[in-house]
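FAQ
Q: What does a multi-component entry look like?
A: The components come first, one per line:
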Amino acid sequence: MVKAGLLYSESHEWVEKDGNVGIVGISDHAQHELGSVVFIDLPKVGKVIKKGDAVGAVESVKAASDLYTPISGKIIEINEALENEPEMLNDNPYGAWIFKVEISEPSELDKLLSPEAYKEIAEE
Amino acid sequence: MKHTVLHEKHLALNAKMIEYAGYHMPVYYQGISEEHLAVRNHMGIFDVSHMGEILVDGKDALKFVNYLVTNQIIEDTSKVTYALFCYENGTVVDDLLVYVIKPEQILLVVNASNVEKDFEWIKSQSKGFDVNLRNVSDSYGQIAIQGPKVIDHIEEIIGIEGKDLSFMTYKVAPYMDGYIILSRTGYTGEDGFEIYGYPSYIEAIWDKAIEIGVVPCGLGARDTLRFEATLPLYGHEIDETINPVEAALNFAVKLDKEHFIGKDALVLYKEQPKRKLVGIELLERNIPRQGYPILKDGKEIGLITTGYLLPTQEKPIASALIEASYAVMGSEVEVLIRNKTVKATIRNRKFYNKNYKK
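Then the predicted structure of the entire assembly, as tokens:
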């Protein structure tokens, strides 16, 4: 399932724009490929990140999958509830946001994928 | 990609499939944790038809196999023996199970990823022995049925009693219009059976087991279960750069046996081991995975060979091959995970008490 109203990256993260803040999570396709998530390695608040950086990891029993940021900026909030309930990423991938970024390069948003364009990648 | 005889059944069960050792295999059906627990508490069935089978026939079969492997193979047609093939320098070609079918016919069960390499190795060592070697991997199917409840249901599944077998023994029993090998062995740390037979027999046994509620389990749970029971896997705890002494497999290395390939090197190594396989427990929540470095006071002392966060364990645990001088139980180390250091302690490898029926 690809949710309308969000932007997507080719590495299967979603971004919701809220003023100058980008809210980031992983797509339904990503959680499905991973299988049951048992651990999330969250980034630190205050960290300055660049588009494409590995900022953490989402892990199933079997494997660790790097978490990339689809936008540059400063991390202003992380979803600490995921540390105790990482399975929320499976149950509700578009509700379980992972981190919020104060966007430093708004033009990067233009290069992200529309739900329609992402749907083609996810369904390949 | 190759398919086992059960391939269609995996797809019909909607398994998550991966490529493994050239085969299209199920990694899980419902989920690794659910399948892990099914085997620990009830019953699970695994398609392991990808495993390799090599037959050694001939007058010198027993003598030749004893020259090839680290363990003592005796002329007992009910015994299953775990052993390793080593190179002259003592490092591991592969690990295997040995079945003496008759004094002049021995079955070697080897890892799927190593079948061709093993067969070439065995052939290259056979000069001067009166043996005939056959790679029969494609004509054998294999399944493993594992878990504490299996002994109560095996007869219902295959029509053959299993209680007469103890752990690490087997029998050849009539099945349909031929025979199967019923072996009280496994790779999970639980009681159970491994069954070898023609692909059509394996299909019939699989169907019956699923029908009575045995949980289909994929390679994912096979790995978590064997890891928790500290059973080695080629490519992790053993490989061409690791010898069985450092991999804590001394029980399968009989240094008092007549000559076998690698013996001299292993005798020397045992006197002064350089590395040791230990247990690691993380003190923070994270997951230690193969290849992550172990640090002591900032210095790298070894690597994780396998690690998991398991539903049956409170802490994230791992096996690690480290410099022998640092193998002190209870001492603090760090594991380097994505450029961050995570605190850990060195512990024993008794992650789980194995439930074999001796």
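Q: Is there any commentary attached?
A: Sometimes. For this entry: The radius of gyration of chain B is 20 Å.
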